[in-house]
Amino acid sequence: MKNILIYYMAILIPLVLLFLIAQSGHSTWFVVLLLIYAIPYRMLVDGQRLVSKKLIKWAETWKLLVPWIRYDYFMELYFRK
């Protein structure tokens, strides 16, 4: 996932779907899906991007659960192609 446009689409499209679920009044589904998005999904998407840029190994993606480690890669994730 070296292409930054694909990365942004991978993180923003689920947010649009979450917003639509929230607007439909399914608050339980919204909370469950928001937790799934925030913890495992973003960890895997961010990890895949960092692995494809050869900054970390796939076995190290679990470390992205720790908040300050993800911020170490902030510039690489969001701004650098």
Kindly describe this structure:
The protein is mostly helical and 81 residues long. The longest helix has 26 residues. The chain is globular and about 40 Å long. The model has no long low-confidence stretch (mean pLDDT 92).
User: Approximately what portion of the residues adopt beta-strand conformation?
Assistant: under 5%
Query: Helicity, in percent?
Result: over 70%
- Rg, rounded, reads 14 Å
Estimate the mean pLDDT confidence.
92
Which sheet architecture does the biggest sheet show?
none
Q: Stretches where pLDDT falls below 50 for ≥5 residues? A: none
Q: In whole angstroms, how far apart are the ends?
A: 10 Å
Compute the number of helices: 4
Order of helices and strands: HHHH
How would the global form be characterised? globular
**Helix/sheet category:** mainly alpha
Counting DSSP E segments of at least 2 residues, the number of strands comes to 0
Task: Please render the helix and strand layout as text.
Elements: H1 4-24, H2 27-52, H3 67-72, H4 74-78
Helix pairs in contact: 1-2
Please sum up the structure shown.
The chain has 4 helices and no strands.
